[in-house]
Design brief:
By secondary structure, this protein is an alpha+beta fold. The chain is 46% helix and 16% strand. Strands 1, 2, 3, 4, 5 and 6 form a 6-stranded mixed sheet that branches. A hairpin with a 4-residue loop joins β5 and β6 (94-98).
Length: 218
């Protein structure tokens, strides 16, 4: 379970574009980082007051271990960034931005326009991914679940048929000629393919599609 808390202080785009020494020398970053760090510290203290020893501070999130809650929970502390959120990774000396609200809302819309078949097809492809990993058709980290969702979001609604077997075959056939480089992430704000750390590489995306095709014809 992931929970996002956002401080309405704005993170500037030019800060997000920087990394390493350039970031650390930037005055706007220093202000934003100070506010984010203070907010994160307050959030951590509040969680420890409520959940005590079940709380731990990790690189990206504040974690609540299962026990006080029904499942493990991750709290992400963020600043406001345009229509999304920004989170600092101090050890990597960079900021990461994301658009969870847009991702969630567009996913709900896709579920409706596919007659409630989008989520079950995602589960099918994730299961197939796991099987492909077991069969050593792809490496374990080639196809993260997030990018499988983004890939399938770009598939035309009419290919999500009632029968899972037909859908799997039709999606693979469509992907043979699709330009993956033109795909957007499910949030509709970021290109799915690229060289940034939060993007899928073209080599890994094609390797995943190829592994699904090999799995289908095994």
């Amino acid at each position: 379970m992931d929970v996002v808390v956002k401080l309405n202080s704005k993170l500037r785009p030019r800060v997000v574009a920087l990394a390493g020494e350039q970031l650390e020398e930037n005055d706007s970053h220093k202000v934003a980082y100070g506010r984010w760090q203070s907010f994160r510290r307050h959030a951590l203290n509040a969680m420890r007051a409520r959940f005590r020893d079940n709380v731990s501070a990790c690189r990206k999130t504040l974690k609540i271990a299962k026990g006080e809650t029904q499942a493990d929970a991750d709290l992400v502390v963020t600043l406001s960034f345009r229509e999304g959120i920004g989170c600092c990774l101090p050890d990597k000396r960079r900021w990461v931005v994301s658009y969870p609200h847009q991702h969630h809302q567009r996913g709900l819309n896709k579920e409706q326009t596919t007659n409630r078949r989008f989520k079950r097809v995602i589960r099918m492809f994730k299961t197939a991914r796991n099987h492909a990993v077991d069969e050593v058709l792809i490496g374990r980290y080639v196809a993260p679940s997030y990018f499988i969702e983004c890939l399938l979001f770009n598939v035309p609604d009419e290919l999500f048929s009632r029968r899972l077997e037909s859908t799997f075959a039709d999606v693979l056939d469509w992907l043979k000629t699709a330009k993956l480089e033109d795909f957007l992430c499910q949030n509709g704000r970021v290109a799915m393919i690229g060289n940034q750390r939060e993007q899928w590489t073209i080599a890994k995306s094609r390797a995943f599609v190829k592994s699904m095709q090999r799995l289908w014809y095994m």
